[in-house]
Amino acid sequence: MPPPTPLAPSSQSQSSLPPISASGTSVAGPPPPxxxxxxxxxxxxxxxxxxxxxxxxxxxPEERYGERPGTxxxxxxxxxxLEARFPPGSRERDAIVDxxxxxxxxxxxxxxxxxxxxxxxxxxxxxxxxAEAAFGMLGLAMHQSLVEDLGLNPGGERIPLVRARVxxxxxxxRIGALRTRDIGSLVSVKVQ
Length: 192
Fold this sequence. Notes:
Low-confidence stretches: 10-15, 35-42
Mean pLDDT: 77
Radius of gyration: 26 Å
């Protein structure tokens, strides 16, 4: 049986390809103009340099720093609340770094006058679909507070991602009772 003959390339496909040099690189013309260098999470290096919250994109990936001024005020308000709740220099802060989370009760969170004064929409954000962003702001506030308190992260040691865990939010549900309609909602799970 004779070997199969290769198909001749069509002239149409050859004309759409850029010419190739002897070294195997394309010689199609000048390279495109350089675009601003972006960090892995989509902000430019200039935006990242002016942001005092170095972990902004980790906790709030859907929003660039300074995009909405209300978010910055909420983070500052949350930072003041968390510094009063977990004072700088306390042992609780070391435990937070070790556990990578901190716990708050919903009553404590929503009942604080200083926090509700600076973040009036907190209750609505937690009860509606904005709970993830609200907890991201709380996590960012705690992260920044730990960076400032422990003197970490200027160029050396990194503080791990710190999550806010809020207890006593709404009625408790058994884990077996959760349904697909609960996806994206904030629920309290009853553990037996």
